[in-house]
Amino acid sequence: MSYAKVLCVGLVGVTGHLVEVEADLAPGLPAVVLSGLPDTALNEARDRVRAAVVNTGQRWPNRRITVNLLPATLPKHGSGFDLAIAAALLGGTGDLPLAPLDGVVVLGELGLDGTVRPIRGVLPMVVAAARAGITRVVVPIDNAAEAAVVPGVRVRAVESLHRLVAYIRDGAALLDPPPRHGAPPPRGPDLAEVAGQGLGRRAVEVAAAGGHHLALLGPPGAGKTMLAERLPSILPELDDETALEVTALHSIAGLLPPGGELVRRPPFQAPHHTATVPSLVGGGTGLARPGAVSLAHRGILFLDEAAEFASGALDALRQPLEHGRVVLNRARGGTEYPARVQLVLASNPCPCAKPAGDTHCECTPLARRRYLSRISGPLLDRIDVQVTLTPLRAAELMASAEANESSAVVGARVATARAAATARWAKLGWKVNADVPGPYLRQARWRLPAASTVQLRRRLDSGSLSARGFDRVIRMAWTISDLDGRERPGADDVAEAIQLRTRETS
What start-end ranges are recorded for coiled-coil regions in this protein (predicted)? Predict the structure, then answer.
């Protein structure tokens, strides 16, 4: 027999596709031809597989070898096809009966000595296999714990091509995934450590409860960064479905910690202000890789010193914030990554970073306006909560941290508020108030009484608030009422939402 086939999985973005690796050995000048839209790394598999087969003690067939990856129209990239190619090639010689691999997906990169190396993206690959009806997979031993989190799939592991060959030929045992350790992840810094800043603490709590974007403005030392870094500590843990999404993205990026546990804490990404557009939204040659906005999916994207970021990089975030995804088109095809994040901006009010009105401030009013205008109006209009923090007073700084509410206390209120929102919107597919479309909130069933929105409508008519801002204030009012345990927002909730939107300090 000169033909054999082994199943594998290819990734396009975070979506996996079942791939059939075919090998045909024919008489002719010895050569290896690889077809099916392989990239450079995959084309180099010819040399890796040959060395691995020979160094494992197997006979290399001196024939014309054609390896085809089906479907041929799907771009293939990476080294995860190596092990499947080697198995198909050896099966094509007729010396290795591949019946034990019927209906089994094989994943792994080969070293020249025949060792099987870990690869990126194993989790979404196994998820794709499960969705295609595959119940058995063989993966590198270092990826086994990660693959084992997918329910309904029997995972076996190999550390070398020799073990896989022994399993196929003689029925030798494959390796079991290592045991997983279910230790809860650390929650990070605590909100109790933030001195003073009652308005800032309230803004962070509202943002967490409703999934709202947040902008914190104020002088150095006011607590902007401390508040932002503690936002994840009051967010609830990710549910199974969401945790699988987040873990798959981190698997593709090669950022999963050892142990193979699902990412349960909302991710926190804080790129430096010199970050480029590709590093923020994704990019690269060939098929684009995820950027910081996708790695923060279902978590926080924190841009400290936001006014120092390049304006093009900031404005590139507008589309992901609006649609919750990033679509990157390249010559080899388009890639889509999820990007449903909470954006948190922090910025000083001016270049000299002195408090407004301070006699030592070196900036003119025009310089202050120019500095903050680096954050474009259209981007700021998409930020629900916008507050200006005032400098700390000595009494606030020296007060005992025990008087401040901890992250656990605030997080409990956030969880209760989110549960109320989920119960209200679940049948419509929304989990937090920030996800609810504005037109829906203006329908008769959910429209707030005219008496509660008088001030809001005046601001819209005067032009001090945009239509988008109007809807975002309504969403925040629902969040505030959820936090305070009310079924519907009242005039006081709308007034507080306006304060949190317009950077008013009182």
Answer: none
What stretch of H or E contains 346?
A: strand 342-347
**What pLDDT was estimated at residue 269?**
95
Euclidean distance between CA atoms 307 and 270, whole angstroms = 14
Helix segments in 11-158, DSSP class H? 40-43, 45-55, 82-92, 122-131, 144-147
Cα–Cα distance for residue pair 77/134, rounded to 1 Å: 22
User: What's the pLDDT band for 393 if we cut at 50, 70, 90?
Assistant: confident
User: In which band, very low, low, confident or very high, does the pLDDT at 1 lie, cut at 50, 70 and 90?
Assistant: low
The 3-state DSSP class for residue 137 equals strand
**Residue partners of 45: CB distance under 8 A and separation at least 6:** 34, 38, 79, 81, 82, 85, 110
Report the 10 Å Cβ neighbour count for 137: 27
Is residue 119 within 8 Å of 105, Cβ to Cβ? no
The residues spanned by each domain of the chain are: 3-170, 191-411, 436-506
Tell me how far apart the alpha carbons of residues 35 and 94 are, in angstroms, rounded to a whole number.
22
For the chain, give the number of residues: 506
Half-sphere exposure of 416 (CA within 13 A, CB side): 14
Number of H-type helices and E-type strands within the chain = 21, 16
pLDDT band at 306 (very low <50, low <70, confident <90, very high): very high
- Nearest CA to 388 out of 265, 503, 470, 252 is that of 503
Q: Which fold has domain 3-170?
A: Ribosomal Protein S5; domain 2 (3.30.230)
Average pLDDT of span 136-156: 95
Task: Quote the CATH superfamily of domain 191-411.
Answer: P-loop containing nucleotide triphosphate hydrolases (3.40.50.300)
Q: Give the global pTM.
A: 0.87
Whether 349 has a pLDDT exceeding 90, the answer reads: no
Q: Does 505 score more than 60 pLDDT?
A: no
- Strands (E) in 94-222, as ranges, are 104-106, 109-110, 116-117, 136-140, 154-158, 214-217
Q: Residue 174 class from Cβ within 10 Å (0-12 exposed, 13-18 middle, 19+ buried)?
A: middle
Separation between Cα atoms, residue 262 and residue 123, nearest integer Å: 10
Give the tens place of pLDDT for each residue, 421-479. 999 998 888 999 999 998 999 888 899 999 999 999 999 999 888 898 999 999 999 99
Q: Residue 116 has what pLDDT?
A: 97
In angstroms, the first-to-last Cα distance of the chain is 82
On the CB side of 475, CA atoms within 13 Å amount to 32
Strand partners of residue 334: 329
The CA distance from 300 to 208, in Å, is: 10
Spatial CA neighbour of 340 closest among 224, 181, 213, 232? 213
> Does the pLDDT of residue 118 top 90, yes or no?
yes
